[in-house]
Amino acid sequence: MSDIVIDTHNISRVYNPTTIPIYAIRNVHLHIKRGEFTALVGPSGSGKTTLLNLIGGLDKPDEGQIFINGTDITTLSPGKLIDFRLHNIGFVFQSFNLIPVLTARENAEFIMLLQGKSKAERGTRMKQLFNQIDLEDKMDSRPGELSGGQQQRVAVARALASKPQFVLADEPTANLDSKSASNLLDIMDKLNREENITFLFSTHDQRVIDRARRVITLVDGQVATDTNVIDTSAPH
User: Fold this and answer.
1) Phi, psi (degrees; rounded to nearest 5) at 149
2) If you compute the radius of gyration of the chain from its CA atoms, what whole number of angstroms results?
3) 166-170 and 89-92 as β-strands: parallel, antiparallel, unpaired?
4) Residue 85 to residues 41, 68, 119, 163, Cα–Cα distance (Å)
5) What does the DSSP 8-state code read for residue 137?
6) What angle do CA 139, 141, 142 make, to 5 degrees?
7) Tell me: the pLDDT tens digits for 151-179?
């Protein structure tokens, strides 16, 4: 199996192509390897969220190709793309996107339900995940009974429930206070180091950038810098 999980080949996303074209993303060529903990940064309007949506198959490039674990998702039919996302990509959103009437456990296992996993499989996976996010005692609570930080941890559990190839996190700490953000980043950092889960963040948050071990800066839809950060916290 290749170490390259995400491989974009000169992708562009263009608005108003028939009048005055505006490039949200322009000729981006990017490799993300398995186990990376990468922050995608840049000013507002630089194309961070657009690039994340393209990689996640939520939007389609006007030019170029996107390979996820060797599969060119730009060639998939809408139905096959939905199925591919369901089994390969985990998403964490700024706004949590939990279903209010479901418990934390039901929210987190929802993807597994769509995949047709058995009750026993779901139960085992939920027990494992809620232990990892330190919310074993909140599994039966509804989102309205949880703090913002707790809700976002449930969203991380949901993203990881299906054991995806990687997790895309769009401004995951934006609505969290400092303590909640730090706790969330501790959990994701631990999952990355111990289980080799690949994370790609879109962020303005310096707290996320400081934890990242690779920082890619977008400016006007193009990669301006791509830097591997010396990891001083790794065990020696």
Assistant:
1) -65, -40
2) 18
3) parallel
4) 24, 10, 22, 12
5) G
6) 120
7) 999 999 999 998 898 999 999 998 899 99
Residue 236 pLDDT > 50, yes or no?
A: no
Q: CA-to-CA distance for 54 and 217, rounded, in angstroms?
A: 17
Establish how many alpha carbons lie within 13 A of residue 236's alpha carbon, considering only the half-sphere containing its beta carbon.
4
* Alpha-carbon torsion (33, 39, 42, 44), positive or negative: positive
Q: Of all helices (H) and strands (E), which one includes residue 4?
A: strand 4-15
Residue-wise pLDDT for 12-71, tens only, equals 999 886 788 889 999 999 999 999 999 999 998 899 999 999 999 999 999 999 999 999
Three-class DSSP category at 40: strand
Furthest-apart CA atoms within the chain: distance in Å: 56
Q: Are 186 and 213 in contact (CB under 8 A)?
A: no
What is the rounded average pLDDT for all residues in the chain? 92
Please name each of the domains of the chain with its CATH number.
Answer: 36-58+78-228 (3.40.50.300)
Which amino acid appears at position 158 of this protein? R
Strand partners, 92: 169
Angle at 134 between CA 132 and CA 135, to 5 degrees: 115
Angle at alpha carbon of residue 219, lines to 28 and 197, rounded to 5°: 60
Please state the φ and ψ torsions of residue 161, each to the nearest 5 degrees. -55, -40
d(CA 112, CA 118): 8
Q: How far apart are CA 76 and CA 84, in angstroms?
A: 9
Residue 229 per-residue DSSP state = P
CA-closest candidate to residue 7, choices 102, 73, 53: 73
